[in-house]
Amino acid sequence: MVQETHVSAANLIFPLFIVDGTFQKSEVASMPGIYRYSIDNLLREIESCLKLGLNSFDLFPNIEESIKDKYATESYREQSLYLRAIREVKKNFPEACVVTDVAMDPYSSDGHDGIVENGEILNDETLEVLGKMALAHAQCGADIIAPSDMMDGRVGYIRKVLDDNKFTNVSIMSYSAKYASAFYGPFRDALNSAPKFGDKKTYQMNPANQREALIEARLDELEGADFLMVKPALPYLDIIKLIKDNTELPVAAYNVSGEYAMIKAAIQKGWLNEQRAITEVLTSIRRAGASAILTYHAKEVLENKWL
Ligand code: PBG
Protein backbone atom coordinates (compact mmCIF):
# COMPACT_ATOMS: atom_id res chain seq x y z
CA MET A 1 0.00 0.00 0.00
CA VAL A 2 2.72 2.45 0.84
CA GLN A 3 5.33 1.37 -1.69
CA GLU A 4 6.10 4.40 -3.83
CA THR A 5 7.73 2.84 -6.85
CA HIS A 6 6.80 -0.08 -9.05
CA VAL A 7 8.40 -1.55 -12.16
CA SER A 8 6.19 -3.24 -14.72
CA ALA A 9 6.59 -4.76 -18.17
CA ALA A 10 5.23 -1.55 -19.67
CA ASN A 11 8.28 0.34 -18.42
CA LEU A 12 10.77 -1.95 -20.14
CA ILE A 13 12.43 -1.80 -23.55
CA PHE A 14 14.50 -4.83 -24.53
CA PRO A 15 17.63 -4.13 -26.63
CA LEU A 16 18.27 -6.91 -29.15
CA PHE A 17 21.39 -7.57 -31.25
CA ILE A 18 21.00 -8.83 -34.79
CA VAL A 19 23.36 -10.50 -37.28
CA ASP A 20 23.04 -11.56 -40.89
CA GLY A 21 22.35 -15.15 -41.92
CA THR A 22 19.89 -17.74 -40.71
CA PHE A 23 19.71 -20.00 -37.63
CA GLN A 24 22.18 -17.73 -35.84
CA LYS A 25 22.12 -17.32 -32.08
CA SER A 26 25.54 -16.50 -30.66
CA GLU A 27 26.06 -15.43 -27.09
CA VAL A 28 27.94 -12.19 -26.40
CA ALA A 29 30.94 -13.31 -24.36
CA SER A 30 30.81 -10.40 -21.93
CA MET A 31 27.01 -10.52 -21.62
CA PRO A 32 25.91 -13.98 -20.45
CA GLY A 33 22.33 -14.71 -21.54
CA ILE A 34 22.37 -12.09 -24.31
CA TYR A 35 22.61 -13.20 -27.95
CA ARG A 36 23.03 -11.92 -31.47
CA TYR A 37 20.11 -13.25 -33.50
CA SER A 38 19.64 -13.69 -37.21
CA ILE A 39 16.24 -12.36 -38.34
CA ASP A 40 14.49 -15.76 -38.18
CA ASN A 41 15.54 -16.22 -34.56
CA LEU A 42 14.90 -12.57 -33.77
CA LEU A 43 11.26 -13.13 -34.70
CA ARG A 44 11.10 -16.17 -32.39
CA GLU A 45 12.67 -14.18 -29.57
CA ILE A 46 10.23 -11.31 -30.02
CA GLU A 47 7.30 -13.68 -30.09
CA SER A 48 8.34 -15.19 -26.75
CA CYS A 49 8.80 -11.71 -25.25
CA LEU A 50 5.36 -10.58 -26.41
CA LYS A 51 3.86 -13.60 -24.63
CA LEU A 52 5.45 -12.30 -21.42
CA GLY A 53 3.90 -8.87 -21.91
CA LEU A 54 7.18 -7.32 -23.08
CA ASN A 55 6.18 -5.19 -26.07
CA SER A 56 9.02 -2.79 -26.78
CA PHE A 57 12.31 -3.59 -28.48
CA ASP A 58 15.36 -1.62 -29.54
CA LEU A 59 17.35 -3.21 -32.37
CA PHE A 60 21.13 -3.00 -32.91
CA PRO A 61 22.95 -4.55 -35.89
CA ASN A 62 26.25 -6.39 -36.00
CA ILE A 63 27.62 -5.48 -39.43
CA GLU A 64 30.34 -7.36 -41.26
CA GLU A 65 33.54 -5.34 -41.43
CA SER A 66 33.77 -5.60 -45.24
CA ILE A 67 30.54 -3.61 -45.78
CA LYS A 68 31.39 -0.78 -43.43
CA ASP A 69 32.57 2.51 -44.93
CA LYS A 70 33.42 6.07 -43.92
CA TYR A 71 29.89 7.33 -44.56
CA ALA A 72 27.88 4.40 -43.16
CA THR A 73 26.06 3.99 -46.47
CA GLU A 74 24.99 0.49 -45.46
CA SER A 75 22.73 2.09 -42.84
CA TYR A 76 20.15 3.24 -45.38
CA ARG A 77 20.59 0.64 -48.13
CA GLU A 78 17.15 -0.79 -48.91
CA GLN A 79 18.16 -4.44 -48.41
CA SER A 80 20.43 -3.93 -45.42
CA LEU A 81 20.18 -6.32 -42.48
CA TYR A 82 18.78 -3.64 -40.22
CA LEU A 83 16.03 -2.43 -42.54
CA ARG A 84 15.00 -6.00 -43.36
CA ALA A 85 14.79 -6.73 -39.65
CA ILE A 86 12.52 -3.75 -38.93
CA ARG A 87 10.22 -4.69 -41.82
CA GLU A 88 10.02 -8.34 -40.74
CA VAL A 89 9.31 -7.51 -37.11
CA LYS A 90 6.55 -5.04 -37.97
CA LYS A 91 5.06 -7.39 -40.57
CA ASN A 92 4.88 -10.31 -38.16
CA PHE A 93 4.12 -8.37 -34.99
CA PRO A 94 2.44 -5.07 -35.80
CA GLU A 95 1.62 -4.70 -32.11
CA ALA A 96 5.32 -4.66 -31.14
CA CYS A 97 6.78 -1.23 -30.46
CA VAL A 98 9.99 -1.02 -32.46
CA VAL A 99 12.60 1.48 -31.34
CA THR A 100 15.41 1.96 -33.85
CA ASP A 101 18.92 3.20 -33.24
CA VAL A 102 20.21 6.08 -35.30
CA ALA A 103 24.00 6.50 -35.23
CA MET A 104 26.76 5.67 -37.67
CA ASP A 105 28.97 3.48 -35.49
CA PRO A 106 27.77 -0.04 -36.37
CA TYR A 107 28.28 0.78 -40.08
CA SER A 108 31.28 3.09 -39.87
CA SER A 109 34.71 1.83 -40.88
CA ASP A 110 36.05 4.31 -38.32
CA GLY A 111 33.81 2.97 -35.54
CA HIS A 112 32.56 6.47 -34.75
CA ASP A 113 29.04 7.87 -34.50
CA GLY A 114 29.78 10.58 -37.04
CA ILE A 115 31.83 11.20 -40.19
CA VAL A 116 35.52 11.57 -39.33
CA GLU A 117 37.94 13.74 -41.25
CA ASN A 118 41.52 14.40 -40.15
CA GLY A 119 40.70 12.97 -36.75
CA GLU A 120 37.70 15.26 -36.24
CA ILE A 121 33.97 14.59 -36.27
CA LEU A 122 32.08 16.56 -38.94
CA ASN A 123 28.90 17.37 -37.02
CA ASP A 124 26.71 18.97 -39.69
CA GLU A 125 27.72 16.62 -42.51
CA THR A 126 26.80 13.74 -40.23
CA LEU A 127 23.25 15.07 -39.81
CA GLU A 128 22.53 14.28 -43.46
CA VAL A 129 23.45 10.63 -42.93
CA LEU A 130 21.39 10.46 -39.73
CA GLY A 131 18.41 11.97 -41.56
CA LYS A 132 18.61 9.33 -44.30
CA MET A 133 18.89 6.59 -41.71
CA ALA A 134 15.92 7.86 -39.66
CA LEU A 135 13.75 8.20 -42.77
CA ALA A 136 14.64 4.66 -43.88
CA HIS A 137 13.68 3.35 -40.44
CA ALA A 138 10.35 5.18 -40.53
CA GLN A 139 9.62 3.85 -44.01
CA CYS A 140 10.18 0.31 -42.71
CA GLY A 141 7.70 0.85 -39.88
CA ALA A 142 9.76 2.02 -36.90
CA ASP A 143 7.59 3.43 -34.11
CA ILE A 144 10.26 5.36 -32.22
CA ILE A 145 13.53 6.69 -33.64
CA ALA A 146 16.31 6.82 -31.05
CA PRO A 147 19.32 8.89 -32.11
CA SER A 148 22.27 7.73 -29.98
CA ASP A 149 24.97 9.67 -31.81
CA MET A 150 25.11 12.92 -29.74
CA MET A 151 25.64 15.20 -32.76
CA ASP A 152 24.39 18.75 -32.12
CA GLY A 153 21.11 19.63 -33.81
CA ARG A 154 20.20 16.09 -34.83
CA VAL A 155 16.83 15.95 -33.11
CA GLY A 156 15.53 19.01 -34.96
CA TYR A 157 17.06 17.79 -38.22
CA ILE A 158 15.51 14.31 -37.92
CA ARG A 159 12.12 15.72 -36.81
CA LYS A 160 12.03 17.88 -39.93
CA VAL A 161 12.98 15.02 -42.25
CA LEU A 162 10.27 12.83 -40.70
CA ASP A 163 7.60 15.54 -40.85
CA ASP A 164 8.48 16.53 -44.42
CA ASN A 165 7.92 12.90 -45.39
CA LYS A 166 4.61 12.61 -43.54
CA PHE A 167 5.95 10.55 -40.66
CA THR A 168 4.50 12.92 -38.09
CA ASN A 169 3.45 10.00 -35.90
CA VAL A 170 6.92 8.55 -35.53
CA SER A 171 8.37 9.60 -32.17
CA ILE A 172 11.90 10.56 -31.25
CA MET A 173 13.54 9.18 -28.13
CA SER A 174 16.66 11.24 -27.87
CA TYR A 175 19.80 10.12 -26.10
CA SER A 176 20.04 13.55 -24.51
CA ALA A 177 22.60 13.02 -21.78
CA LYS A 178 24.86 10.31 -23.11
CA TYR A 179 28.14 10.14 -21.26
CA ALA A 180 31.55 9.06 -22.59
CA SER A 181 31.36 5.97 -20.42
CA ALA A 182 33.50 2.92 -19.72
CA PHE A 183 30.28 0.91 -19.42
CA TYR A 184 29.69 0.53 -23.18
CA GLY A 185 32.51 -1.99 -23.61
CA PRO A 186 30.44 -5.19 -23.84
CA PHE A 187 28.04 -3.54 -26.34
CA ARG A 188 30.95 -2.71 -28.62
CA ASP A 189 32.03 -6.37 -28.36
CA ALA A 190 28.51 -7.45 -29.30
CA LEU A 191 28.50 -5.29 -32.41
CA ASN A 192 32.22 -5.19 -33.10
CA SER A 193 31.81 -1.43 -33.23
CA ALA A 194 34.63 -0.05 -31.07
CA PRO A 195 36.24 3.15 -32.40
CA LYS A 196 39.30 2.33 -34.54
CA PHE A 197 41.13 5.35 -33.11
CA GLY A 198 40.56 8.05 -30.54
CA ASP A 199 37.53 8.10 -28.26
CA LYS A 200 34.04 9.58 -28.23
CA LYS A 201 34.78 12.40 -25.83
CA THR A 202 34.25 15.19 -28.36
CA TYR A 203 30.57 14.27 -28.72
CA GLN A 204 29.64 12.26 -25.63
CA MET A 205 29.51 14.01 -22.25
CA ASN A 206 32.08 14.26 -19.51
CA PRO A 207 30.99 12.06 -16.56
CA ALA A 208 31.96 14.93 -14.26
CA ASN A 209 29.19 17.19 -15.61
CA GLN A 210 25.65 17.54 -14.34
CA ARG A 211 24.51 20.99 -15.44
CA GLU A 212 25.53 20.32 -19.04
CA ALA A 213 22.97 17.49 -19.07
CA LEU A 214 20.25 20.07 -18.53
CA ILE A 215 21.46 22.10 -21.51
CA GLU A 216 21.49 19.00 -23.71
CA ALA A 217 18.03 17.97 -22.51
CA ARG A 218 16.53 21.44 -23.05
CA LEU A 219 17.93 21.66 -26.57
CA ASP A 220 16.49 18.25 -27.47
CA GLU A 221 13.14 19.24 -26.01
CA LEU A 222 13.07 22.46 -28.04
CA GLU A 223 14.06 20.55 -31.17
CA GLY A 224 11.06 18.24 -30.78
CA ALA A 225 12.13 15.17 -28.81
CA ASP A 226 9.30 13.06 -27.35
CA PHE A 227 11.47 11.33 -24.73
CA LEU A 228 14.71 12.42 -23.10
CA MET A 229 17.16 9.64 -22.32
CA VAL A 230 20.00 9.39 -19.84
CA LYS A 231 22.75 6.86 -20.42
CA PRO A 232 24.23 4.94 -18.60
CA ALA A 233 21.66 4.62 -15.81
CA LEU A 234 23.09 3.37 -12.54
CA PRO A 235 26.11 5.70 -12.21
CA TYR A 236 23.87 8.60 -13.36
CA LEU A 237 20.74 8.35 -11.18
CA ASP A 238 21.27 11.98 -10.15
CA ILE A 239 21.08 13.01 -13.81
CA ILE A 240 17.85 11.06 -14.34
CA LYS A 241 16.36 12.84 -11.32
CA LEU A 242 17.64 16.24 -12.43
CA ILE A 243 16.17 15.92 -15.91
CA LYS A 244 12.91 14.48 -14.57
CA ASP A 245 12.53 17.51 -12.28
CA ASN A 246 13.11 19.88 -15.18
CA THR A 247 10.86 18.55 -17.93
CA GLU A 248 7.31 17.41 -18.52
CA LEU A 249 8.51 14.92 -21.16
CA PRO A 250 8.86 11.25 -20.25
CA VAL A 251 12.41 10.37 -19.23
CA ALA A 252 14.10 7.16 -20.37
CA ALA A 253 17.26 5.57 -18.97
CA TYR A 254 19.59 3.06 -20.58
CA ASN A 255 20.81 0.40 -18.15
CA VAL A 256 23.79 -0.31 -20.42
CA SER A 257 25.82 -3.38 -21.33
CA GLY A 258 28.56 -2.77 -18.76
CA GLU A 259 26.02 -2.45 -15.97
CA TYR A 260 24.55 -5.78 -17.08
CA ALA A 261 27.98 -7.43 -17.35
CA MET A 262 29.00 -6.21 -13.91
CA ILE A 263 25.93 -7.72 -12.22
CA LYS A 264 26.10 -10.98 -14.17
CA ALA A 265 29.79 -11.44 -13.38
CA ALA A 266 29.18 -11.00 -9.66
CA ILE A 267 26.21 -13.37 -9.80
CA GLN A 268 28.28 -16.00 -11.62
CA LYS A 269 30.81 -15.76 -8.83
CA GLY A 270 28.06 -16.23 -6.28
CA TRP A 271 28.71 -12.78 -4.82
CA LEU A 272 25.25 -11.30 -5.32
CA ASN A 273 21.70 -12.60 -5.09
CA GLU A 274 20.47 -12.43 -8.67
CA GLN A 275 16.81 -11.62 -8.17
CA ARG A 276 17.40 -9.08 -5.44
CA ALA A 277 20.24 -7.30 -7.21
CA ILE A 278 18.44 -7.00 -10.53
CA THR A 279 15.09 -5.87 -9.12
CA GLU A 280 16.82 -3.37 -6.86
CA VAL A 281 18.65 -1.86 -9.83
CA LEU A 282 15.48 -1.52 -11.93
CA THR A 283 13.48 -0.14 -9.01
CA SER A 284 16.16 2.45 -8.31
CA ILE A 285 16.18 3.62 -11.92
CA ARG A 286 12.39 3.99 -11.78
CA ARG A 287 12.60 5.77 -8.41
CA ALA A 288 15.06 8.27 -9.88
CA GLY A 289 12.38 9.20 -12.43
CA ALA A 290 12.67 7.01 -15.54
CA SER A 291 9.37 6.04 -17.18
CA ALA A 292 11.13 3.81 -19.69
CA ILE A 293 14.13 1.61 -18.94
CA LEU A 294 16.17 0.09 -21.73
CA THR A 295 17.58 -3.00 -20.09
CA TYR A 296 19.09 -6.37 -21.02
CA HIS A 297 17.32 -7.74 -17.92
CA ALA A 298 13.88 -7.06 -19.45
CA LYS A 299 13.07 -10.61 -20.47
CA GLU A 300 14.52 -12.46 -17.49
CA VAL A 301 12.67 -10.39 -14.90
CA LEU A 302 9.37 -11.25 -16.58
CA GLU A 303 10.24 -14.87 -17.33
CA ASN A 304 11.16 -15.42 -13.69
CA LYS A 305 8.20 -13.36 -12.44
CA TRP A 306 10.50 -11.11 -10.41
CA LEU A 307 8.45 -7.95 -10.84
C1 PBG B 1 26.39 3.96 -30.11
C2 PBG B 1 25.71 3.27 -28.99
C3 PBG B 1 26.38 2.73 -27.90
C4 PBG B 1 25.41 2.14 -27.09
C5 PBG B 1 24.16 2.32 -27.70
N1 PBG B 1 24.38 3.03 -28.88
C6 PBG B 1 27.82 2.66 -27.57
C7 PBG B 1 28.70 3.79 -27.82
O1 PBG B 1 28.32 4.97 -27.73
O2 PBG B 1 29.86 3.51 -28.11
C8 PBG B 1 25.73 1.43 -25.81
C9 PBG B 1 24.69 0.57 -25.20
C10 PBG B 1 25.21 -0.36 -24.17
O3 PBG B 1 26.37 -0.28 -23.74
O4 PBG B 1 24.42 -1.21 -23.76
N2 PBG B 1 25.70 4.73 -30.95
From TrEMBL:
Enzyme Commission number, as recorded = 4.2.1.24
Ordered alphabetically, the record's keywords are:
Heme biosynthesis, Lyase, Magnesium, Metal-binding, Porphyrin biosynthesis
What does the record give as the reaction this protein catalyses?
Answer: 2 5-aminolevulinate = porphobilinogen + 2 H2O + H(+)
Active-site feature positions: K178, K231
Q: Quick one: a GO biological-process term for this protein?
A: protoporphyrinogen IX biosynthetic process
Check the record and name the InterPro entries matching this protein. ALAD (IPR001731), ALAD_AS (IPR030656), Aldolase_TIM (IPR013785)
Pathway connected to this protein: Porphyrin-containing compound metabolism; protoporphyrin-IX biosynthesis; coproporphyrinogen-III from 5-aminolevulinate: step 1/4
Q: What does the entry list under GO cellular component?
A: cytosol
**UniProt binding sites for Mg(2+):** E216
Query: Which EC class is the enzyme in?
Result: lyase
UniProt-recorded Gene Ontology molecular function terms = porphobilinogen synthase activity; zinc ion binding
Ribonucleoprotein as a keyword of this entry, yes or no, is no
Q: Which CDD domains match?
A: ALAD_PBGS_aspartate_rich
Q: Which domain of life is it from?
A: Bacteria
Matching SMART domains: ALAD
Q: Which NCBIfam families does this UniProt record tie to the protein? A: PRK09283.1
Family named by the database record: Belongs to the ALAD family.
Per UniProt, subunit arrangement is: Homooctamer.
Protein name as it appears in the record: Delta-aminolevulinic acid dehydratase
**What lineage is on file?**
Bacteria, Pseudomonadati, Bacteroidota, Sphingobacteriia, Sphingobacteriales
